[in-house]
Amino acid sequence: MLAIERRNEILERLREEKRVVVSELSRLYQVTEETIRRDLEKMEKDGLAVKSYGGAVLKEHKPVDFPFDVRKNQCVEEKKRIAGLIADMVQDGESIMLDVSSTAVYVARELKKKERLTVITNSIEIIAELYDMPAWTVISTGGTVREKSFALGGPHTDEMIASYHVDRAVVSCKGLDLENGITDLVEQDANSKRMMLRAARERILAADYTKFDATAFTKVTDWPSITKIVTDRKPAGKWMEEFERQRIDCIYPGI
């Protein structure tokens, strides 16, 4: 196993169990305890964990920018439910923008049931996912690759996004807050999401239950920029009241 694969698995354990122990990880991966300590030091340096005596704990009380390979394996069933709901909205022949979120990858997979779509994305993972759709038009925004994210971003990306007008844009986020609006961890990604929303007739926010009542580092946009929010379960009453006030359609399973 490569070191990065081991660290990603440790991150997944941290996400699920909130803490890990050096001695247990050493036995599990059959490496020295010093190797595990170096893994945890790297995670702490990246802001993903906090070292503790004999192990590490998950960095709580704030959204964490896990590597993409970890994020795409989180809340899988929730993301699949969201993806199915979004796919039901899309008609054959439409043009769609998809952001670099792991949720958007599941949306792309569900959309493969459709015909003649045009998809514009800054996600390397989505471009690879759709390589076998010859009847579609798949457009890469170009831009600079960011480490660990499978994302393209930067001024060239945003300029490319702004040159299109599409039927729907689907973006996700790291946090939803009644006062602070829609937020993300990386300014570069937030800029691209904002540009996608401006380019679309219907502006869809895909957010599972873990994103509610959280605020991340940088603002993506405020509520008037969204026409629909798609989530995996009915939000709390305060959220439904706010969506009604903002005239945002809230779509979730069972309605």
Structure description:
This protein folds into 2 domains: 3-61, Arc Repressor Mutant, subunit A (Orthogonal Bundle), CATH 1.10.10; 70-251, Rossmann fold (3-Layer(aba) Sandwich), CATH 3.40.50. It is 39% helix and 23% strand. It has helices at 3-17, 22-29, 33-45, 68-71, 76-89, 102-111, 124-129, 155-162, 187-198, 237-245, and strands at 19-21, 49-52, 55-58, 95-98, 118-121, 137-140, 144-146, 151-153, 166-171, 175-177, 181-184, 200-206, 218-221, 228-230, 249-251. The longest helix has 15 residues, at 3-17. The strands form 4 sheets. Strands 6-5-4-9-12-14-15 form a 7-stranded parallel beta sheet, sandwiched between helices. The chain has 10 helices and 15 strands. The chain has 255 residues and is an alpha/beta fold.
